[in-house]
Amino acid sequence: MIGSLRGRLASKTPPQLTVDVGGIGYELEAPLSTFFRLPAVGEEVRLLTHLVVREDAHVLYAFASEDERRLFRSLIKVSGVGPKIALALLSGITVTAFAECVQREDIGALTRVPGVGRKTAERLIVEMRDRLTPATATTGADGGSAAVAPAVSAESEAYDALVALGYRPAEATRLLKAVGPGTHSTEELIRRALQGAARE
Predict the structure, then answer these.
(1) Is the separation of the CB atoms in 61 and 45 below 8 Å?
(2) Domains plus CATH for the chain?
(3) pLDDT at residue 123 above 50?
(4) What is the distance between the alpha carbons of residues 70 and 68, in angstroms, rounded to a whole number?
(5) Cα separation of 10 and 17, whole Å?
(6) What is the SS3 string spanning the chain?
(7) Residue-level pLDDT at 131
(8) What is the pLDDT of residues 1-41, one digit of tens each?
């Protein structure tokens, strides 16, 4: 099992990134919460990982914090929740907010995440209630390492990230337009778009 990687960040296009470790490029998938804390391309990065072995592929997932990886590992054990939905949950909601949703049995908040229907949300609440440790419930994935380098086109990067999360192209465009004018970073655009979606 590959537990972590340290190397040069070769590329990042949500939700995929590549880390060059001693001349070998590892392709990984990561939640947006991890992308927000990546350094600029070409700089050194250390990420925690989880390997998922499927019949047709071995997929390596990357996380900026142990809390994120722990929650991901718990989520994929829930019936009907695969890595894709787990990544969407980690991208659309913080570890702390997820724990609060489970404790409050807030099905509505969970179903706003693309790919999570009512039945899946109900299963998440029932099955995750006992799996969430006190540390998970009180420690979020908001602390962070290096800041994200400004994107060449923050809107384009935010659009791609929303589509990767499961939003339809037209819906992603509408959510970003609703953010309104102003100079926003990719992170801020995505956050405001997701907040807008949560209010609907």
Answers:
(1) no
(2) 4-63 (2.40.50.140), 66-138 (1.10.150.20), 154-199 (1.10.8.10)
(3) yes
(4) 5
(5) 8
(6) CCCEEEEEEEEEECCEEEEEECCEEEEEECCHHHHCCCCCCCCEEEEEEEEEECCCCEEEEEECCHHHHHHHHHHCCCCCCCHHHHHHHHHHCCHHHHHHHHHHCCHHHHHCCCCCCHHHHHHHHHHHCCCCCHHHHHCCCCCCCCCCCCCCCHHHHHHHHHHHHCCCHHHHHHHHHHHCCCCCCHHHHHHHHHHHHHHC
(7) 76
(8) 789 999 999 999 888 999 999 999 999 999 988 988 899 99
Per the listing, tokens 């990982």 go with 49
Tokens of 16: 């995929």
What is the reported pTM? 0.70
